[in-house]
Amino acid sequence: MLSAHAASGSGGDCRAAFDLGADRVGCRTNPAPDRSVDSVDPEMDSQPAPSGSAMSGSATSRSATSRSATSGTATTGTSAIGVVSPFLEAARGRPAPHTPVWFMRQAGRSLPEYRAVRGVGSILDAIKQPELAAEITLQPVRRYGVDAAVLYSDIVVPAHAVGFGIDVAPGIGPVAEQPFRARADLGRLRPLSRDDVAYVTSTVELLVDELPAAVPVLAFAGAPFTVASYLVEGRPSRDYRHTKALIHHDETLWHELMECLADSAIAFIDAQLASGAGAFQLFDSWAGALGRREYERYVLPHSHRVFDELGLRHPAAPGIHFGVGCDHLLESMYAAGPAVLGLDWRTPIGDARSRLGDDLVVQGNLDPALVLAGEGAALAGTRAVLRDNELPAGGRHPGHIFNLGHGVQPETDPGVLAAVVEYVRSTTAAP
Q: Which of 57, 120, 140, 275 is the most buried (most CB within 10 A)?
């Protein structure tokens, strides 16, 4: 049985409090994918676990591997020789020329240039066109001068690519006509291969050639729980009734499903990083629907394995963990092993550091609603976020990546986001 004990509530590295040792059930329908370094194993229009052998060892030792990108050994904060990346420096908790900034869902419906090239139909159709997907990814970099280019993709791409039977319906989100409800459905989740997502890796390669050296491509995938919720519910849900029913009625099958989805997330992010992406984000958008004990028993071991395995394969690539409404899960989500913890707008940066340690590297966390409220409200909120990142002795904490507390809304005025970027850069620039 998978389990994790409650973490201490404040200070230090809370990950050491979790016991992640357990016997794990495998994805029994399919053989485990090749997990060598060369094997293959984000949140755009949709909003938003372990394999064959037993997970052993303490969270402290495993997290040290996952967070190796934050250490000064074997890694640098440069995208190319002599070129400093503010994003990568901050992700490693090191001083950057300015506080880096990017936005979740920065490439999307809020931009007129996006609407001009996107076309009709599912986002998955656009993602399958590397030149189009690369152009859409580049649009916010050109317009705003953001410090990271999050790949134009979607968290259900892997499940779609292996033929599970899921699409993204405009105005609705991920929809599966035949949801995952029984053991036989594991057969619809074969291991993801690099060939399955060749169009994604081609997009990453195009971006690496086109982007400034200081701006890394940010890879991403949906976390096992959030992807599972879409597969099991069959569409976006408010109560996750089918997901929770599966968790509590057939725990073995639940863990087998999460095993498969963890393998898929590892494969998908591994393919992007191997193609030149410089960092990654694991979106667990809907993990906040779970209580802490549920999360630690049914989710944490699988998300932990994603960060652990990617840390072994790509020790120089920082990983970000993000969820919405997850203040009650901060200790648990940090125990999964990310280098950076994404915060939504409900959790002050100072509170997160008081609970998880002064060296915590965070991403966030301007309320997206303030951006919709206009430039004045957005800049006031931006100032508040930056103040929250100030050190008691003065100056700014180096471990901060500015972002919204969730994705950019389609109704957002691009001019307001441009003003936010300019304010963050100008007020945090090193003298």
A: 140
Over 60: is that where the pLDDT of 69 sits? no
Question: Would you state the pLDDT for residue 25?
Answer: 35
Give me the sign of the Cα torsion angle 208, 143, 416, 369: negative
Judged on CB neighbours under 10 Å (0-12, 13-18, 19+), 187 is exposed
Helices (H), 33-156: 59-66, 86-91, 112-118, 123-127, 130-144
- Return the structure tokens found at 221: 């995938």
- At 101-152, the pLDDT tens digits run 999 999 988 999 999 999 888 999 999 999 999 999 999 999 999 999 999 9
Question: CA torsion, points 248, 25, 283, 221, in degrees to nearest 10?
Answer: -140
Helix residue ranges, H only, 1-146: 59-66, 86-91, 112-118, 123-127, 130-144
Based on the residue annotation, tell me whether 109 is a catalytic residue of this protein.
yes
Q: Is 154 a catalytic residue?
A: yes
Catalytic residue among 28, 35, 94, 109: 109
Residue 17, phi then psi, degrees to nearest 5: -80, -10
| 388 counts as catalytic | no
- Angle formed by the axes of helices 130-144 and 414-428, nearest 10°: 60
Q: How far apart are CA 177 and CA 30, in angstroms?
A: 23
Instruction: Check if 34 is active-site.
Output: no
pLDDT in tens, 169-194: 988 999 999 999 999 999 999 999 99
Secondary structure tally for the chain: helices H, strands E? 17, 11
Single out the catalytic residue among 114, 144, 152, 230.
230
Which stretch of DSSP H or E encloses residue 430?
none
Domain ranges within the chain, ordered by starting residue: 14-84+101-345+354-360
CATH number of 14-84+101-345+354-360: 3.20.20.210
pLDDT at 171 (0 to 100): 84
> Omega of the bond prior to 365 within 30 degrees of 0, cis?
yes
Would you say residue 263 has pLDDT above 70? Answer: yes
